[in-house]
Design a protein that fits this description.
The chain has twelve helices and eight strands. The chain is an alpha/beta fold. The mean pLDDT is about 95.
Length: about 325
């Protein structure tokens, strides 16, 4: 049994922000029962210098220009003096005071190079969202056990060896998946027992805002397909089949309208099947428009995926 007083490795927590409040997440970090030194670096891409508003005991850096998410993370990583580093978004709040210990523990195994937090959106937080924000956030009401950059610990030496986050190719999405692809040859990834509450940063709650989120993520996926091709495995297969289905639908509009109708029915099913659970949580007349919204998103994401593949860059803001 591990001695609870055993000294832990020092760790640096890097928090990127764009004018959003960071007091809550910093306060929770300071309450962690972690038997090692913790350094917090906050990098702000916002317009205003908030030095006087910052909690004490952190390193606050107001970037002279907006470096983007990946640029801020890279700057924080290079400033870190520790081998163990954590990227933590300001809207991901640890759910208990053992979060940091639970996140770092897997990295004590030699071949583990990345340890990710599980994440969940508390229903009481979700209930305060606008209609469209609620709709698109429904999947997060269940515990997410995936690898991501929102609340994740790494070995700095491995991240640096991989060239950090690629902030030239990826502007607002995809930089984490790209880094993870490069890191795979160095060791093992683990989803730890640590959990964060993903409360979401302040949003512009318009439908277009959320559609753009889908578009930039799929544009980034196209860039990843170009860089890694068949290493993307099931994802590139799925996107390829989506594209073929779309092309057949368009072609048969001119040759056999009945076949085209059948294909469109399949498209409706594919575009909406993973979102059926929305009606379990939301009862609103506006849901009648949801199938149309998802069909439009389905077609638009095909276009931007191949735009990213052809251009080799993710550019959508």
């Amino acid at each position: 049994m591990r001695n609870k007083k055993e000294k832990k490795e020092p760790v640096t927590i890097i928090i990127p922000t764009h004018s959003s409040p960071i007091t809550e997440v910093v306060n929770v970090i300071k309450q962690q029962k972690y038997a090692g030194k913790v350094t917090i670096i906050v990098l702000d891409n916002g317009i205003k210098d908030r030095t006087k508003e910052m909690p004490k005991g952190i390193m606050y850096i107001k970037n002279e220009k907006n470096l983007g998410l990946a640029g801020s993370l890279n700057k924080g990583i290079m400033l870190a003096k520790t081998e163990l580093i954590i990227t933590l978004h300001q809207d991901c709040i640890p759910v208990n005071d053992n979060w940091l210990t639970e996140l770092i523990t897997p990295l004590e195994t030699l071949n583990v190079i990345l340890s990710s937090s599980q994440q969940i959106l508390p229903k009481e937080v979700w209930q305060r969202f606008s209609f469209w924000h609620k709709v698109f956030a429904v999947p997060e009401l269940k515990l997410q056990k995936t690898i991501h950059e929102r609340a994740t610990a790494y070995r700095k030496s491995v991240v640096v060896s991989c060239g950090l986050f690629d902030n030239k190719t990826f502007h607002t999405a995809g930089e984490d998946s790209d880094l993870f692809m490069k890191m795979q040859k160095y060791g093992r990834f683990v989803v730890s027992d640590a959990v964060v509450s993903h409360n979401h940063a302040p949003h512009n709650n318009s439908l277009w805002k959320f559609i753009k989120t889908f578009l930039r993520c799929h544009e980034a996926m196209g860039v990843l397909h170009r860089k890694y091709l068949f290493k993307m495995k099931s994802q590139i297969t799925y996107d390829f089949l989506k594209t073929i289905l779309c092309l057949f639908f368009v072609v048969f509009l001119f040759y056999n309208i009945y076949v085209s109708i059948i294909l469109f029915g399949i498209i409706i099913l594919l575009a909406n099947i993973t979102h059926v659970s929305v009606i379990k949580y939301i009862q609103d007349i506006r849901l009648v428009a949801l199938p149309i919204v998802y069909i439009c998103i389905w077609f638009a994401t095909i276009i931007v995926t191949w735009k990213g593949f052809i251009s080799g860059r993710q550019t959508i803001e």
